[in-house]
């Protein structure tokens, strides 16, 4: 959608002159999408919201009436300092991961735009493979790489590079080192998406503009920062928005790493904490709602900006 | 892409939630006169623990004793069992009629009202001959909801060659065990393979010293790791972690035979069926996994005999010589679903399972039968002896309604890992107690 803003204006005027189609047809076309959204997104969201104001656990699922408890689930959660710690961790993890992913992704995109065809193909194929590997399969590989007993990374560090203390080093037992490993994995998995999107954006930057700037004496660095970057900014902001959303609700990578032997309580993020409330649906619902609010708070600014740009 | 991801998550959530919405009324229709109406009932068994021959026995016996009715056995995977039961048991149309459930998972469902009350069948099914710890786990508010199906006890496997080389005898007390493990420990070989998160084995030291994971006191559950008796056991655990194992603090109790097979551990503790996973390099005949020829079978039998010749087994010893440790018992319970449409047929199936015939067959297949009267059917080789000795002494996790939360939050994994990493035992135990108390109440 961001790409459209880069198109040369001119189409817009003809569109308004075109005769309007009958309204009914337009709405009929919307039905399948709205239906899917209502069933797949609307219903669970409403249900989650309702449950979060009830006392709803296993007993309720087996037929006991669910009592309304007002805001009790929310006050319980928000008065627990541990929940706040997890919220803080999640936001920090999300921002750091989104930033690192963006920087590396953009670097790859620029690289792809500059190198020759053969190198570009190699880059694209490797990025696609990283993007296409199923999460659980690649998590198993990462787990083996970082395994403290038989892992390849410890082996290389101790036998090849001579850091003998690393022979049985546990990478995931300390929270900070755990998040380092998780960041490496999450960034590795998300870079291809950023790289491809930004690369597509870079291709849209008109040659003539660049040539004109070059003739005017702009250096390569100036052309990049003053022409290319502003022109692909809409792409960047959409991609960043998606990264923030995805990295906030990261679950699989953290869950798998925890099960590989990390201390669970010290490494929980919002996704895994909600999952640990599996038997208290009401509490899980309340925390999921809180997470939704945090997501909106983090991304509201971008969404508003995007809507504004669409209006222009 | 964004829409797709959202939609996928949404669909998954919608499925989960619709599956959650429960039926409103329970239809527990007791039969008024004699034979219940013929129907098909479903039995859920988990994993491959129950051999095919036993399953066939159940279906044919059930069908001949209940003319016109049929028994369908569906196999479920152990992992993810609790969420699957949460949804299936809540729906009258989906629910299996009889379910097998891990003994520590049982309280979650008994208190929620997911199982039918079978207090009246207690004597008929075996009465006080049933494994007592398991019966306790099947009770809620004084009523009986699930009964012991089978148990698998833990015992210590050891490398006979390493014992001989180090001049170590099979230990006869728990203190001896520590000394033996320390003697066996070298720079590359763990005396005792003791992974940092392995509370299943660690619990034995707590239980044997008279401690507990949590106790019920004054109408409330309390974490009991920091009690004097528990700490005595935990100090010994800390010593083992420090001086008698190279197992990483971030490893769990899965597949402890891997380092044993690689010659990196002299002892490990596991359920007795781990004997089939032992594969010492000097015994390996290099038979391909898919080779089913008679020659291959003969080689495999030879390999197994060689493995068992070099490997010994003993039940973890107790505080004084001649006693056995009180270990943690694995195993499962069996129950009738509260929402079953055919509770009478389901109860008939329970009667078949607890018949002497079937209990003996469990024993012959290496599982400790739920009714201890039939334990002798296990045979009298060293494995059976070690298993029975360990099982009769074994103890379960506390029968608290919310015990599953403690396991779900992995409080004990975290705690043992801290001990393994060298944290102050008393402080770590006090912290963990607080979390356990919060989770249980």
Write structural notes for this entry.
The complex is a heterodimer of chains A (312) and B (441). Chain A has 312 residues and is mainly α. Chain A has 15 helices and two strands. In chain A, strands 1-2 form a two-stranded antiparallel ribbon. In chain A, helix 2 (23-51) packs antiparallel against helix 15. The radius of gyration of chain A is 24 Å and the shape is globular. By secondary structure, chain B is an alpha+beta fold. Chain B has 18 helices and 13 strands. In chain B, strands 2-1-3-12-6-13 form a six-stranded mixed sheet. In chain B, a hairpin with a 2-residue loop joins strand 4 (139-140) and strand 5 (143-144). The chains are: A mainly alpha (312), B alpha+beta (441). At the A-B interface, helix 2, helix 3 and helix 13 of A face helix 1, helix 3, helix 4, helix 16 and helix 17 of B.
Key descriptive features of the protein:
heterodimer; A: 312 residues; mainly alpha; globular; disordered N terminus; B: 441 residues; 6-stranded mixed beta sheet; 13 strands; 43% helix
Q: Tell me the distance between the termini of chain A.
A: 13 Å
Global morphology of chain B:
globular
Strand proportion of chain B, as a percent range, falls in 5-15%
User: Which overall shape of chain A is indicated by the principal axes computed on the Cα atoms?
Assistant: globular
Write the layout of secondary structure elements.
The complex is a heterodimer of chains A (312) and B (441).
Chain A (H helix, E strand, L loop, with lengths): L10 H7 L5 H29 L2 E2 L2 H4 L5 E2 L3 H7 L2 H34 L2 H16 L2 H12 L5 H9 L14 H29 L3 H9 L4 H29 L3 H8 L4 H4 L2 H7 L4 H31 L1
Antiparallel strand pairs in A: 1-2
Helix pairs in contact in A: 2-15, 5-6, 5-9, 5-11, 6-9, 7-12, 9-11, 10-11, 11-15, 14-15
Chain B lengths: L1 H19 L19 E7 L5 H14 L4 E7 L4 H8 L9 E5 L3 H7 L9 H4 L6 H6 L1 E2 L2 E2 L1 E7 L1 E6 H7 L7 H11 L14 H10 L5 E4 L2 E4 L4 H16 L13 H5 L5 E5 L22 H17 E4 L15 E7 L6 H11 L2 H9 L3 E2 L12 H12 L9 H6 L2 H10 L4 H16 L1
Parallel strand pairs in B: 1-2, 1-3
Antiparallel strand pairs in B: 3-12, 4-5, 6-12, 6-13, 7-10, 7-11, 8-9
Helix pairs in contact in B: 8-10, 9-10, 17-18
């Amino acid at each position: 959608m961001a790409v459209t803003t880069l198109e040369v204006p001119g189409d817009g005027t003809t569109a308004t002159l075109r005769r309007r189609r009958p309204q009914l047809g337009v709405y009929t076309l919307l039905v399948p999408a709205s239906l899917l959204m209502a069933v797949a997104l609307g219903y669970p969201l409403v249900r989650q919201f309702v449950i979060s104001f009830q006392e709803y656990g296993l007993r309720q699922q087996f037929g006991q009436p669910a009592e309304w408890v007002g805001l009790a689930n929310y006050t319980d959660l928000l008065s627990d300092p541990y929940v706040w710690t997890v919220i803080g961790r999640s936001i920090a993890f999300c921002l750091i991961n989104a930033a690192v992913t963006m920087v590396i992704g953009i670097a790859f995109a620029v690289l792809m735009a500059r190198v020759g065809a053969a190198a570009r193909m190699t880059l694209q194929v490797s990025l696609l493979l990283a993007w296409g590997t199923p999460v659980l399969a690649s998590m198993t590989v990462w787990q083996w790489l970082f395994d403290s007993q038989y892992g390849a990374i410890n082996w290389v560090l101790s036998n090849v590079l001579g850091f003998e203390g690393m022979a049985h080093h546990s990478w995931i037992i300390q929270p900070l080192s755990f998040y380092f490993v998780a960041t490496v994995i999450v960034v590795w998995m998300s870079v291809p998406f950023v790289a491809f999107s930004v690369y597509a954006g870079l291709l849209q930057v008109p040659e003539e503009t660049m040539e004109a700037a070059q003739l005017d004496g702009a250096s390569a660095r100036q052309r990049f920062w003053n022409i290319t970057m502003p022109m692909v900014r809409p792409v960047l902001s959409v991609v960043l928005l998606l990264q923030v959303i995805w990295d906030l609700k990261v679950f699989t990578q953290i869950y798998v790493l925890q099960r590989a032997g990390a201390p669970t309580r010290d490494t929980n993020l919002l996704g895994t904490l909600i999952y640990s409330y599996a038997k208290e649906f009401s509490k899980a619902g309340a925390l999921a709602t809180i997470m939704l609010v945090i997501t909106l708070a983090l991304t509201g600014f971008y969404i508003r900006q995007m809507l504004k740009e669409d209006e222009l | 892409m964004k829409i797709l991801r959202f939609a996928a998550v949404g669909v998954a959530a919608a499925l989960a939630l619709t599956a959650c919405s429960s039926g409103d009324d329970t239809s527990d229709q007791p039969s008024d006169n004699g034979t219940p109406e013929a129907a098909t009932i479903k039995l859920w068994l988990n994993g491959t623990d129950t051999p095919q021959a036993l399953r066939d026995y159940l279906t044919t016996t059930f069908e001949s004793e209940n003319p016109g009715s049929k028994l369908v056995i569906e196999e479920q995977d152990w992992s993810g069992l609790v969420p699957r039961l949460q949804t299936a048991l809540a729906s009258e149309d989906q629910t299996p009629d009889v379910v097998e459930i891990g003994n520590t998972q049982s309280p979650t469902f008994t208190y929620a009202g997911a199982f039918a009350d079978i207090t009246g069948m207690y004597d008929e099914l075996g009465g006080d001959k049933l494994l007592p710890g398991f019966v306790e786990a099947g009770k809620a508010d004084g009523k009986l909801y699930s009964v012991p199906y089978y148990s698998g006890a833990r015992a210590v496997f050891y490398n006979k060659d390493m014992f001989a080389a180090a001049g170590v005898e099979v230990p006869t007390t728990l203190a001896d065990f520590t000394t033996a493990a320390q003697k066996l420990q070298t720079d590359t070989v763990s005396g005792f393979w003791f992974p940092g998160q392995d509370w299943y084995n660690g619990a034995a030291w707590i239980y044997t010293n008279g401690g507990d994971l949590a106790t019920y006191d004054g109408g409330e559950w309390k974490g009991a790791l920091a009690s004097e008796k528990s700490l005595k056991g935990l100090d010994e655990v800390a010593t083992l972690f420090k001086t008698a194992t190279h197992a990483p603090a971030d490893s769990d109790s899965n597949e402890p035979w891997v380092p044993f097979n690689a010659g990196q551990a002299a002892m490990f503790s596991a359920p007795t069926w781990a004997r089939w996973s032992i594969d010492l390099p000097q015994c390996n005949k290099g038979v391909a996994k898919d080779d089913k020829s008679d020659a291959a079978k003969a080689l495999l039998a030879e390999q197994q005999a060689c493995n068992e010749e070099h490997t010994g087994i003993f039940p973890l010893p107790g505080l004084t010589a001649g006693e056995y440790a009180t270990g943690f018992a694995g195993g499962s319970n069996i129950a009738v679903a509260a929402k079953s449409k055919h509770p009478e047929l389901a109860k008939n199936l329970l009667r078949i399972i607890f018949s002497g015939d079937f209990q003996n067959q469990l024993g012959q297949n290496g599982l400790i039968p739920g009714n201890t009267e039939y334990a002798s059917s296990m045979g009298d080789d060293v494995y059976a002896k070690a298993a029975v000795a360990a099982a009769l002494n074994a103890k379960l996790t506390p029968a608290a309604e919310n015990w599953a939360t403690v396991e779900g939050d992995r409080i004990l994994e975290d705690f043992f890992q801290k001990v393994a990493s060298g944290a102050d035992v008393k402080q770590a135990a006090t912290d963990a107690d607080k979390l356990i108390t919060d989770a249980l109440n």
